[in-house]
Design brief:
This protein is an alpha/beta fold and 389 residues long. The protein has twelve helices and 13 strands. The chain folds into two domains: 79-105 and 204-386, Rossmann fold; 108-198, Rossmann fold (3-Layer(aba) Sandwich). It is globular. The relative contact order is 0.14. The structure holds zinc ion.
């Protein structure tokens, strides 16, 4: 197995040094900065239509080859129009990128396919990670497929569906009382004595490159016509960073005429990236008492937060917080007006479109629904009951 020949190495985003390809690397060995995958591509490296609608359509700009990846066929998710909700919003057209249709029901399956291939190349046979839920599901199945031992630390508040899926996929699961920050602390403590290779889905450069495919795919679904607005539900900052990096790359490679307005959407009860953006700060301030129903986005100290802010500023994006009530309303509006059942994080992104100012009224907007709403319908129903329905 080999790398994509165009994979030139890992560039440090802090000190600028280029390191040779290393599938186990997650941070710069010289300065601990975040890394990014460097590919020597040209505008001639066009999407490969012969590879169908999934991830491998973008094989020329991925660091691993299809045979090297841990390929459970992620990607190729539908872009579904939502005309009913569009009528209620200050946009002309609304589409939902349905990432819940991935193999374990979230966008993280894209990232794990690439990350798993890199880890396999490096000879890693055992992984450990902390996860709010979705990334743990994707990691568990990736590791099962790759024959890796795995330990996943989840907070007790993560969904029953996430815990069940991680259990079913095998390996060790540790349920840590409390919230995601508690799971991260326990994972870090355990990592010192563990034999596993720790992976952080928020910063892993291979995983982020896999996430980037969601943007190229939605661009392809729009016939390479740029949507004016793309809304990204944001927790750790990884998906936000990936989407912006993908948008910049698409413009550079002449796949698109420009970059869209990217909106970072966070729940108001845990919005460190939005707060920092509004305050024109480079660094998110850790949230001391995070409190949102949207556990997947409840990341009080986002590991990719500084990078996400840098990227968001570079393309002059926006950042918007929405209350839990607005997120529920956004999700339920999609369900009732358009028959689309999003995750609550998808509701956060949809609601953000109501809260952002100065959108052009003829805009086409794409909301990324990062995960499966079917396993969260009970929470949407509980909300409706609390409203007297
Ligand atoms: Zn460095």
């Amino acid at each position: 197995m080999s790398w994509n020949p165009a994979f030139a190495g890992l560039d440090c985003l802090a000190c600028g040094e280029r390191h040779p390809p290393d599938g186990a690397a997650e941070r710069c060995p010289a300065c601990d900065g975040l890394l990014t995958v460097a590919l020597e591509v040209t505008p001639d490296d066009v999407p490969d239509e012969d590879n169908g609608i999934g991830l491998w359509r973008f094989g020329p700009v991925l660091p691993v080859t299809r045979s090297q990846a841990v390929d459970l066929r992620p990607g190729g998710t539908p872009l579904v129009q939502a005309p009913g909700v569009a009528d209620e919003l200050p946009v002309a057209q609304l589409f939902v990128k349905e990432e819940g249709r991935n193999p374990t029901g979230s966008i993280f399956d894209r990232g794990m396919a690439i990350c798993g291939g890199a880890l396999t190349h490096a000879g890693v046979t055992e992984i450990g990670l902390a996860s709010p839920g979705w990334s743990g599901q994707a990691a568990s199945t990736m590791a099962a497929r790759a024959g890796m031992e795995r330990a996943v630390f989840v907070p007790s508040r993560s969904s029953f569906a996430a815990k069940a899926l991680i259990n079913v996929a095998g390996g060790e699961m540790r349920v840590i009382p409390g919230q995601f920050a508690d799971a991260v602390a326990a994972w870090r403590d355990a990592t010192a004595d563990a034999s596993w290779h720790p992976i952080d889905p928020a910063v892993n450069p291979y995983l982020r490159r896999g996430l980037a495919t969601v943007y190229w795919e939605l661009l392809a679904a729009c016939q390479w016509t740029l949507p004016e607005v793309v809304v990204v539900p944001t927790g750790s900052g990884a998906t936000l960073t990936a989407v912006i990096e993908a948008a910049i790359a698409a413009k550079r490679m002449d796949w698109a005429a420009d970059t869209p307005t990217v909106i970072a959407a966070q729940p108001a009860g845990c919005a460190p990236i939005v707060d920092a953006y509004e305050q024109e700060s480079d660094t998110p301030v850790p949230v001391q008492h995070p409190d949102t129903i949207c556990g997947e986005l409840e990341i009080p100290e986002p590991p990719a937060g500084r990078l996400a802010l840098r990227r968001l500023r570079a393309i002059d994006g926006s950042a918007v917080a929405v209350t839990d009530q607005e997120a529920f309303a956004g999700a339920i509006a999609l369900a009732r007006r358009d028959g689309i059942i999003p995750s609550i994080a998808g509701g956060v992104a949809t609601a953000a479109l109501s809260n952002v100012g100065d959108l052009p009224h003829d805009a086409t907007a794409v909301v990324i629904n990062p995960g499966d709403g079917l396993t969260q319908a009970d929470r949407l129903r509980s909300y409706l009951m609390s409203q007297g329905e």
